[in-house]
Amino acid sequence: MKVPNESRTRGEEEALGEAPGAAGEARALPGEPRRSSLWRDAGHRLAKNKLALGGAALLVILVVASVFGPFFLGQSYFAQDLQLGATPPSAGHWLGTDTLGRDLLARLLYGGRISLAVGLCATAVALTIGVLYGTLSGFLGGKVDALMMRIVDVIFALPFTVFVILLMVLFGQRFVLLFAAIGAVQWLTMARIVRGQVLSLRRMEFIEAAEALGLSKARIIFRHMIPNALGPIIVYATLTVPSVMLLEAFLSFLGLGVQPPMSSWGVLIKEGAETMEEFPWLLIYPGLALALTLFSLNFLGDGLRDALDPRAAKD
Amino acid sequence: MARGGREKNGTAGVSSPLLRVEHLRTSFHTRAGVVRAVDDVSFSIGQGETLGVVGESGSGKSVACYSLLRLIPEPPGRIESGLALFGGLDLLHCSEKELRAIRGDRISMIFQDPMTSLNPYLRIGDQVIEPLLIHRKISPRDAFEAGVAALREVGIQDAAKRMCSYPHEFSGGMRQRVMIALSLITKPELLLADEPTTALDVTVQAQILELIAKMQEERGTAVIFVTHDIGVVSAFCDRVLVMYAGRILESGLTAELFYEPKHPYNQALQRSIPALHRRGAELRTIPGSPPDLMQPIRGCPFAPRCEFAQGKCVTSEIALKEVAPGHATACLRVQLGEIDLTPASVAAE
Amino acid sequence: MLRFIAIRLLQAIPVLLAVATLTFFMLKLAPGGPFSAEKSTTPEIQKQLEAHYGLNKPLFAQYVTYLGNVVRGDLGPSFKYPNRTVNELIGQAFPVSAELGFWALLVALSLGLSAGIVASLRPNTLTDYIPSGLAMIGICLPIFVLGPLLLLVFALKLQWARVSGWDDWVDRILPALTLGAFYAAYIARLTRGGMLEVLSQDFIRTARAKGASPARVVLKHSLRGGLIPVVSYLGPTVAGLLTGSFVVETIFQIPGLGRYFVTAAFNRDYTMVVGTVLFYAGFIVVFNLLVDLVLVRMNPKLRFE
User: Fold this and answer.
1) Helix, strand and coil percent figures for chain A, each rounded to 5
2) What is the ipTM of this complex?
């Protein structure tokens, strides 16, 4: 049953071949989807998604608060006041204090820095490895591709959390190790996604055109393939950050992640859980902070996914 | 092509029609605007009659059929107004329960794409006997037997074994046969066929058409046959409706429609059939393209492309009127007797 | 079908081999482990370890011994507790985890499936937003936040349940809810997605044209296809559920495999830790195979690959 295309006029539908490249931009090849209009359309769709925008706004607030907040706050996060002990929220300490008299808000903001930093860095690491691996695998194709994906499958099948715990226990709790462990599995799905994108792009004519024009493989990969595959990469990266943060919090909760005197939200939640009967706020505020961050990241990721590919079925 | 309409006992305009549709209007409310897919369509069909509905893509012919059984997806689509009287009931306004009792039992439908119209997760047998299980008190055993018989009737070999197969094991033609079997298993009074042969190979098309014709004769089922292929219509239908931009432009007996066209669109369509051209003559097409259904249409929708169009064609109210017994047209100028259209075979010389 | 199973088992071998090898090398490299020079255990345990691992043999022989043990299912003596083998400990803890996992799965499936199906019936209306919103909360609220919160409210403040323990049936409720909530949320999203995908297909229209009631359309025509993503997801999930959730068992003090694992990790009970990893991996493999069998049953197109 035919229902007319509702989102664009005929003119906009045509993806033109020759777009005179702006200075420095790779000239689009004949048949290559016009990137600027893709992004513009996605931007429009995203702007209409209230939930995603709300998530983005919340995220910005949290990030800004964590990074800049401590400067404005007067309190330090490690100054203990043993006589004070744990107190509920008050004028002097907006979120109260913990058992050692430290200001909870300050600790929360500093913890936020760590949690967000770990989230972003580990995601960046996973992203880099995943994109390179996936692009290579998809581009080279054939037996090499099959082998590379088989390796991914095997690693994927390993009980990951268990191994991470094993790793952290056996080899001490160094911060770097934490990154390595978390990044070690997140790159797998990214590699798969990128490879899928590369495979479908490869079949498109503009890549043949590039090869016929004699462009070097590296140039093709970096200037033409990766930019066109960016959509799902961005979506997945946005959705990876919360799961990395969750993992870090989980490890810290078990005592295997970030170690004192550094604190992350996971550590705060752990401490809060230990004393929650008497001082429930020590559990509630860090828990809320983590949950809200995960919330906004997930909504943003969903929104990006809908904006960049409205045809994709949810989840 | 021109075998003329099939001989039937002159059921055109029978006193008590099986289905009477009056002023059906269906539109789709999209973000870009409201698409008036069906814009004031009225017709009737008698018992055992075959009514062809012809038009190009976007003419509203399929939507009209879906509207009859209220199978339009309701969020964007909406049946704005109209009546569809069938057996004392208005299909467009009766309750869900009453409608469900009619669907699959008294009125059945077959769809265009046999590949996607069958449930890939269920066995063929289950799908064929389903209408019986829904509408009749019948034991699973008897239903199974009926299913086997139905498959045999539509020409599927090894019917009993095939009942346990899955749709992906069948070819397109066979799947369409299965669709026919399941839609006729309850011996409905009316069959709605939405372009049942369009997605099939040419060789298979003829077989399917003959099958439908045969089943129809045996059961006395009326058929509304939607297609964009006027060749099929000429071979198969008693009466024809020509639709364009959501409206009926001409209706009448098949033979009359071909030999005495009374609307410029009909005439232009026939003229553009390649087979009718003299060898080496330039192929004729209809210039322009169908109107944008989101804009309100003033006057005759075909006027912009019509060689006979005049000012009044766009400014006056256009309606379908009978200009000869059983033959109606929506062309203002033909109604006024101003133009006389010659049939394609004559004009080709 | 037998061929299918055989192929799957063959495919699983490299995975198991990788797990075994990885754990072997981790064991070898771990400071203070059974292979390290420092003797950090009692003499009796040391003797058992020597016998079990062949500590004095060359590297390759050790590896082979190790693999041999694994294949035979002999996971060695506990590093910390004399007179107890890892097999015994796992045998004791696993049923507890399995039971917890079972209840959690029940919660997850009943809440998740119903929420997902309801949400898919009328997309983008209230009946969609409410279940989907709850599902989103379920995904974003970490288990280790939800667990303590539930304990706080129901055990400490309202005193409806005990804070820890695993004796009565009442003790099952909070842990099952905590563990099940996250998975319920994820299942709800997957179900909604799968159902929406199926409900937009042409054959649903055919079913309606036959006069099928809405219930019939959903139950008979949509579920089989719509639930496929859920079943795929369930494979590793159930395996994880049944082998114990570290966090939930730690919070609620449940003597399951997960908690044993964490405690063993902190106690540096290396053999126990490694044994659990191997058990876990093997379990997942078997479970994935079962899930694949179910998937083939649900999606007839797969049978002919």
Assistant:
1) 70, 0, 30
2) 0.83
